[in-house]
Amino acid sequence: MMPVQCKMARVALGWGTRDLAKSAGVSPDTVARLERGERLRDSTMIVIQSVFEKAGIEFIPENGGGVGVRLKKPMP
Q: From 18, 19, 27, 65, which residue has the greatest number of CB atoms within 10 Å?
């Protein structure tokens, strides 16, 4: 997960930094550091990405058009 993907995912879900921090069990400052591009522990990154994925976010890797996120299509 790239820093910009974190912010994009939050916006897609309508979450502020505090919402994400609470869901991931980290401080709001940790979320801000991530979005500024500071390096976090791998375990912290895994937790944050997992929270997003459980909330319905899919991470799109670099594929010639840049990284991104999207909401998962609901199962019928």
A: 19
Q: How far is CA 33 from the centre of its chain?
A: 13
CA distance readout (Å), 36 to 16, 32, 63, 64: 15, 6, 23, 23
Instruction: Give the CATH number for residue 12.
Output: 1.10.260.40
Q: Rounded to two decimals, what is the model's pTM?
A: 0.90
Residue 7 CB-density burial (10 A; 0-12 exposed, 13-18 middle, 19+ buried): middle
pLDDT of residue 63: 80
**Quick check: is 76 in a domain?**
no
Range of the domain at 24: 3-71
7 is a domain residue: yes
Helix (H) and strand (E) counts in the chain:
4, 2
